## 1
Amino acid sequence: MPAAASSQENTGSNPKLKKVGAEMKGEREQDQNRSKDERPFKYLAGDRTIGVEMSQSATVASAAAEFIAEGERASVREPLNRAYFRRPGERPAFLVLRDGREERPTLREDAGAMPAGPCLIRSGEWLLAPEVNGLYASWLFSETVEQEERILQRIYYRLRASAAALLDSADGLWAAVMLPFMPELADQPARLAALQDAQLEALFAAVAERQRLGGDCRVDLLAPYPASAAEFAAQREFIEGVAEQTLGHAYAAACRIGAVIPPDVERTAAGEIARIADFLVLDGAAGEAAPEDAAGGFAQAAEEILAAARSVKPAAALLAAGAPAAYALADLYRIGLSGIFCSAGQRTEALLRAACLTWIARQDHADTAAGGRL
């Protein structure tokens, strides 16, 4: 009794203990009220449709996040001599790749890891940079052969610096570099060849320097707009010749060389080019129509060119580039293209759309495998 009395006296005299007891009592009352009335996560039968839609949306969002994460990070380590190909019997992943007409990151995020596909680099744009454009204009209007050669040598050093910057960036892990195609030189093939030779030599010199320092890089080349298989064969031989002179026979033999073709290319020619090219890029960037207006015609051209290419080479890889490609993504996915190159402004939306299309295709495949039963 004295101990009990002492305990009561201590409790009564300690205001902190009184406060704790009151809080515990209040929490018990709140729990009882919540269990009777609130039930915040319970929905009625009429809400089931909304719940299903929310669940599906969450699944698509999760797939989109996974698709984007996979596209952004270099998670697959592969040898640098991997070819462009399609595995027979299964649909390859639809790639949403970077178009290099955007500011490149200065540092690599994960050295030694390969991205899912190359970044498209239009090297002709290097000639439009402020530090090169003046030299290029002077070269175009040079009055003597000696002056022309001297200015071209200066251009070479500028191009080599641009190539080194590319290989030091994340895009340099795997780049598909399109040789310069300058409209003002369309009727001067000898001067265009000289400019392309300087570009190739600068690029391969930068590759050699990076290899000497122990760095990883993969550079594939793209011949610009060949009109026939014979024209592409000549461009390929030219590229391989410069590669062999600069980096040796082994590198030249392993170098992957593709072609950039316009939507209006002759279909038979496209098939013959595909036969001897490692990959094709259908370029919609040169069109004058608004991208959203050109998307329908671009998709139609892609379907016809893909059919022509795979009629002679079933494993042919065809990617699309330019603004119309992003607008026509759903159609390009449906007809079986390997992927698209996107500008920075279009890439996030393209990744989301590709993720949704991939998720829908997987669900359809699962339903078919289950005999159509849900």
Note: The two ends are 72 Å apart (CA to CA).
## 2
Amino acid sequence: MLGFVPPLPQQPGRPQPGRPPSTGHMIVCGDDALARRLAVELRFVYGERVTLLLPPGRDANSPETPLTQRGRAAALFGRMSAAMNRTAANGSGGTGGSDTNAGVEAVRIMEAPEPSDDVLEEAGVDRAAALALVYDDDERNIRAALTARRLNPRLRLVIRLYNRKLGQHLEELLDQAAAVAMPGIDPALLDASTTVLSDADTAAPALAATALTGSSKIIQAEGLLLRAAERPPPRPGETMDPGLCTLALLSSTTNDPAGSEGSEGSGAEGPQLLPDEQTVAAAEGRGTVVLEAISRADPDRPATRMGGRGAPLAQVFSRRLRWSALGVAVAAVALVIASVLTTGDSAIHSTYLTLLDLLGMNDPSEDAPAARQIIQLLSGVAGLLLLPLLIAAVLEAFGTLRTAASLRRPPRGLSGHVVLLGLGKIGTRVLVRLRELDIPVVVVEEDPEARGIPLARSMHVPTVLGDVTQEGVLEAAKIRRAHALLALTSIDTTNLEATLYARSVKPDLRVALRLYDDEFATAVYRTLRTAHPQALTRSRSVSHLAAPSFAVAMMGRQILGAVPVERKVMLFAALEVAGHPQLEGRTVEQAFQASSWRVLAIDATPPADRNPDLAAVPPYPPQGPPTPSGLVWDLHPGYVLRAQDRVVIAATRRGLAELLRRQRTVAPRQ
């Protein structure tokens, strides 16, 4: 099912006699697909020597897979090696014709239940350049990070944490420990010594974007939002608007129902990242991804609630109770009018007497005219009807207050919403992202104790508890009137089954499903496109989206975001020009390398005043206009890049690896 499994590399426990110990290598520790993909990224894209530490046994997230963690990793490495050999045989083996993996040993695979002191020492943590801790358990990653920092204070750490606040505190603690162990360390090196990332935060914007009409992707840099948007091919006689710049050309099979999303092995028919002007002009019938707009980000904008802060009257009291209350009110008004007409009393005094009669607070009208006595009797009867009505209202109000702390049901008239399947780590982050964009959402989750259930409750998001594969669950989520379906559970077969059923109910439904295996995802995508050519279908892998960001962090660089272009990934990064001969001393136009990298902006802020984290929203002043950004986006093609400049670039995975690899050649690690 997974293809040929090649022989595993040798596993030397200790350095062999006569063989120098491995130094400057990279260690990846994890227990799921992200660890394996990260090792592939470092080995086959950046050409690094990698030691992969996996737990023994099968993958807990895929118990149905017959291969162990070690076997799945070996199979993945085998497929990547075969793909690299095919690429090299076709004469397209990397930028500049250089072999990224020349002279690099195969990935060393180790198995251990925990990254203990002895295991990390055996992996060579004291001689390693970087360590990635990408276990699914935050506590295990923290414990291993503290151990690794003690064993090697100079080690660059990349840690996977879901808890954002805890990650910030941990990053400060580990950087402080490195500063104490290495007095006088360069602040720039210290800033890159510890990086805390979340695969959920990295993948959520791309997953949420698939639910939007127009397929926009958002990248944040120093409080500014870069929006990359897909545009269909122009019609005959129309001129394509390039926006600020063209980031990619979509596959030539995008409009072909039998076509598939392009990947790294699609060749010339697949998507082309960062094309030059001649390629864009010559491309006919192909859509584009353009840098469309730049706007300022709101500071700490909270995710909005659905339905407002207060519960509307229709949710507190039932329709039957509201109609009954209206009937009693009409009867009271009729009694007031009858009292005014028969007794000649004023409207105010008649209303007062009628209310007293309704509530049983008035004295009997023994000496009053007969009309007044009859009205008093009728008012008493209406008062008897009012008593059970008040009791019912109190009971319903208490019931509503009791269920207000529980999950909200999808309202009857809801339409045009997004149905989100799964509230794990990924689904929770995507839910927050969708609500920040004010997109109505209905959540379907099987586990009532799932991670995102409290968030859905606090945001008043309609939630359906149940197995999505069971009949009636998707109907309860109003799938027939939904705009899109995001199937983000951790089980591929569940996502596929829910997608197929949703398409049978609504053939034109927009669908994005989370799938791990690329070959399986391609087959599913092509089948769905053939069966439903009029509907948009996307398949996404969280580990595929997150692995490039983790890999670049291990190289000591900052990633602003990753944008999926079909099944390829484009990276946005911040780089110092110094040490990059492809950039330093060249104009912006000369620095552009088609299919590799493009300079988008320059940070004009003096080096001493620069924000070290461009991805963070800068603090806004309490009063007055916000501080202007130091990033200059409207670049003149003739501007010469200087060593002190910091630039924002869009790059392919191999293009960014080429920049970082050549920098290592210019300035080798001490």
Note: Residues 571 and 653 are 7 Å apart (CA to CA).
## 3
Amino acid sequence: MSELDVDTDAVEKGGAALEDVGQKLKIIREEYIDKISSYRGCWGTGEFGEAFEKKYYQGLDPTVAGLDALAESAEASGRSLGGTGKKFKKVQQDVIDQLPTPKRNV
């Protein structure tokens, strides 16, 4: 006989942890933008400085988009995992509720 024994609390905690990672990634994204943006203009306004700045910031948008996607993915995975834990908990309780209550012979 096979047995399914899911630790629903652990599954839900795992989901919450992933959502937390997503939130932290959003904070990191904001810090990244703040820090990289603080360098704007430090190379001067001459031809070399402007050309260097243009190349330097080319990766900004794709990096920010990647961080956004990673954060959203972590949060979505966390929500899914947390929801799965709740569903397993309900199914397990439904099964328990459906089990016949043993009658005692007196």
Note: The first helix runs from residue 8 to 37.
## 4
Amino acid sequence: MKKQFFVPNEITSNFDRPDYSFPDSETYAIAFKTDKAALEGFLPEGLSFVPGYEDVVLLRINKFECKEKKIRPYWESVISVPASVEVNGETVIGEYAAQLYLGSIEPESDISPILSGQLLYGYPKREAIFSINGEFGKDDVSVVKERHGKTLWDLDFKAWTSEAPTNLGSAVPQGPLLLCKAIPNVSGNGWDVLEINTPNMVDGSLKMKEMRPLEGKINGDILLDTGRALPVKEVLESYYMKYDWILTWGTTLHNYLK
């Protein structure tokens, strides 16, 4: 039996344990095709691109708030690709999140959404500056994201004017979010943690309130803070969602150190 270890509150006061309730969450999503060569070296070892989706990227802009954990409203963008991982002899198809960027709408939260996401699940989060032109949740909105003075992407969303598609949200295979949690050891010669994790939602907590198609446009390439550029060859679909959900503990799908 493992002995309990005391950790002072001063160490853990800027992150908290699940559950995290996110009512009235809002998301703008846009899926696009890029050059396959631009995604070379994008996946960690043990993950594979899903056949037929090797050049597909999903970009989401979220607006989240968790009042009960004193996490104030913040912007979040997620860049992900369809990917698969072998778990106990079975292939799990999901969505590998390569990078997340967060920007506070209000002054910094008591509980840091960046630290909580990184330490608990392995969300690859970093900070960015979001400029929103228009009312988030309405049809016509422009979103620009910057980091260290460089524009990483520039998006426009407008109202859908033709017949609504019947298969909205199908451009990317549905499945769990896949995160690579990588924490180096202090000596610099290895890893303390090296895992593929998936965050979980409380059963029955996802309640979709609204989902509608949009005309999405990406102005220029999508840039990552590593210097990687993802050229936009074709926009596959774009949509808006409003929903409730509760984030709970996650699951380790693969531990590279065992």
Note: DSSP finds two helices and 15 strands in the chain.
